[in-house]
Amino acid sequence: MSFRIRDQPKDIISPREIGEIDTRAPFQSVKAAVSLFGEVAVSKEKRANSIKRKSSENVLEKETQLLLAQRELNKIKKLLEKSETTKSKARSELDKANVTLNELTKKLTSVRESKRTAMEAAEAVKSQGKELEMALSQRAIGYQSWKEELEHARKEYTTTVTELDASKQELNKIRQDFDAALEAKLAAFQAAGEAQRSAKMNLEKINELSKEIATMKASIEQMKLATEQAQEEQAKIIGDREAQLSYYRSAKEEAEVKLVALKNEYDPELTQSLEAKLAETSAEIQDLQEQMKQAHASEMNSVRVITSEIKEATKILQEVASEESSLRNLVDSLRTELEQVQIDQKEAKEKEKAAEALAATLTDELQSTKEGAGPGAGSGFVEEAENFSEETNMKMEQLSLETENARVEAEEMRTKSEELKQEAEKSRAVAEELEKKLEVVLKQAEEAKAEEKRAIEEMKILNDMQGRVTNAETNGKIILTVQEFAALSEKIKESEDMIERAEAAAIIQVEAINTRKIEVDKKVEANLKAIEEIKAATDMALRNAEMADSAKLAVEGELKRWHHEEQNMESSLDHSENSPRPISLRI
Questions:
Q1: Beta carbons of 528 and 424 less than 8 angstroms apart
Q2: Residues 373, 375, 377, 379, CA torsion sign
Q3: How far apart are CA 34 and CA 52, in angstroms?
Q4: What is the pTM of this model?
Q5: Does residue 304 lie within any of the structural domains?
Q6: Which own/partner pairs from 31-40 qualify as long-range (CB within 8 Å, at least 24 positions apart)?
Q7: Edge-to-edge strand ranges of the sheet holding 477-479
Q8: What pLDDT is recorded for position 41?
Q9: Within 10 Å of residue 294's Cβ, how many Cβ atoms?
Q10: How far from chain centre, in Å, is Cα 52?
């Protein structure tokens, strides 16, 4: 800051020579000058050191992030190797299951052939028995030989029946082994599919981590370049500081010379009056500076409040994004469950058709056995009918369990759809709250702009007041230095730039929030559509379950009717056996 004091104008007569004299004192003492130069140097050194520290800290952070990413990549590689081993195990188990399946099919074919031969032998024995009965009715001679042949035929028939029972038991065992082999094969397929999925997931993670590592390496190189640039700038700053120090030293020497000359030239009274005026003007300037500092502090406080509110809005946006990702995961899980329900529906329909076909075959077999079998074939028919009834009962129990499971799954899907609706409503409420908060932030930004304009107007008024004070003085003139005026104007520009940046950031965040809100609304609508689809699928599953129940009841009625007919046939057979007959052959 410099002060220039002029003497009175030329119109006023003065004993001394009239002219403009520069009586500014750039430094109160040598100590003040040294402290001023030292502060400038120390502040520049501090800036350079802070730039170095920030750059080194950023490099260390990037290196630590790179190490963590490499560790995660190694973990994922290990998981990939494990998944490959499980995949190979599943393939080996699948091959074993195929081998066992082929063996079981061979056994089944051999058992079927033995069954056919046994059936043919039984038919031959039946035909021989009929021929013997006809011969017995025609011939009365040779009764003993015919009886022996009849007993021999009975023994052959019993052996064939035992062979048939053994073949049936073997067939049941082969069926059980075949079912177990199929289950093992399905388990192996599922394990292979899971291994493939895990391998795909691990490959995707590896690609993502490799991309992140590449970006981290690029950022580390950029940070190294930035540190080199900062070092070059530091060297330039040190050179500029030395040049400024030399300039300040020369200015100090010139000022000391001028001070000595002025002390020799002028009277002490004039210097005392000038010092008093200088003190008054410096006090006024300090007051003005304090007012400017207060205005700047109020502006900075308003900017800080706006930035804090913007940070809160960003946090809320992040929470909304996390809720959105959780909703996506729920929708994906519901889609997978819907696909599983559709698969279960198809299986239930197939089982329903199989039950209907089985019922039709049972009815056909009953009718054919009723028409073709004689009175002596009752016991075998009864046993076969009981076996068929037991099998159908087991299948109906399985159908009932599957229908109950479908109902339980439908109820679970309904509860999940209700939860999704509640979460969608919550996300809408959060979006509305965000809109309200953003409106408040925009209002506060407008208020900060208005306060900035007021502060600028007050600064202008203070400058006008300062100009009036300088014009009102008759003995001298107070003038701010170019550096101080530039510093004040730079501070004003910085405050304006800060407020404009905060406003632009707030507007950008408002636009981002609006776009995210639109996306959230679209996703909520998509979730609601998915919920409606899930509801329709659950209704279809319930209808299929009801149809399966009705089919079960119908099959149970048919079975009861068959059982009643079998009992009637057994009673009629017992009655016919107790009644006197000439000669009977049981088959």
A1: yes
A2: positive
A3: 27
A4: 0.27
A5: yes
A6: 33/248, 33/252, 37/245, 37/248, 40/241, 40/244
A7: 20-21, 2-6, 477-479
A8: 46
A9: 12
A10: 39
φ, ψ dihedrals at 4, nearest 5°: -115, 130
498, 503, 506, 510: CA torsion to nearest 10: -160
Could you please report the per-residue DSSP string of 308-341? HHHHHHHHHHHHHHHHHHHHHHHHHHHHHHHHHH
For tokens 């104007």, what's the residue? 489
Is there a contact between 63 and 182 (Cβ–Cβ < 8 Å)? no
Report the candidate in 78, 92, 94, 340 with the shortest Cα–Cα distance to residue 199: 78
Q: What is the three-class DSSP state of 13?
A: coil
- What is the SS3 assignment for 481? coil
The three-state secondary structure class of 470 is helix
Residue type, 414: R
CA–CA separation, 306 and 309 (whole Å): 5
Of the candidates 307, 315, 234, which has an alpha carbon nearest to the alpha carbon of residue 54? 234
Instruction: Give the number of residues written for the chain.
Output: 587
Pair of tokens at residue 51: 């730039």
Cβ-defined contacts of 511-516 (< 8 Å, 24+) = 512/317, 513/313, 513/317, 513/434, 513/435, 513/438, 516/317, 516/320, 516/321
> E strand or H helix at 363, and its extent?
helix 268-372
Please, are residues 569 and 392 in contact by the beta-carbon 8 Å criterion? no
Average of per-residue pLDDT across 266-279: 68
Q: Domain of 403?
A: 282-445+506-571
**Would you say residue 556 lies in a domain?**
yes
The mean per-residue pLDDT over the stretch 351-362 comes to 67
pLDDT of residue 469: 44
pLDDT digits (tens, 9 = 90+) for 478-495: 455 666 666 666 766 776
Q: How many domains does the chain have?
A: 1
Kindly report the CATH number assigned to the domain that includes residue 531: 1.20.1270
Do 420 and 527 form a contact (C-beta atoms < 8 A)? yes
**What single-letter amino acid sits at 535?**
K
d(C-alpha 313, C-alpha 471), whole Å: 52
CB 83 within 8 A of CB 199: yes
Residue 199 lies in a domain: no
Per-residue model confidence (pLDDT) at position 66: 78
How far apart, in whole angstroms, are the C-alpha atoms of residue 437 and residue 430? 11
**344 φ/ψ angles, rounded to the nearest 5 degrees:** -65, -40
User: How far, in Å, are 293, 313, 494, 504, 527 from residue 501 at the CA level?
Assistant: 21, 17, 10, 5, 38
The rounded distance, in Å, linking the Cα atoms of 434 and 428 is 10
Q: Tens digit of pLDDT for each residue in 157-207? A: 788 778 778 877 877 887 787 777 778 777 777 777 777 787 778 778 777
CB distance 118 to 167 below 8 Å: yes
Q: Residues 508, 442: contact at Cβ < 8 Å? A: no
Task: Find the angle CA(9)-CA(11)-CA(16) to the nearest 5 degrees.
Answer: 65
**Does 238 fall in a domain?**
no
Burial level of 268, CB count in 10 A (0-12/13-18/19+)?
exposed
Q: How far is CA 324 from CA 258, 357, 420, 423, in A?
A: 75, 49, 11, 9
Listed residue (41, 5, 139) closest to 474, CA to CA: 5
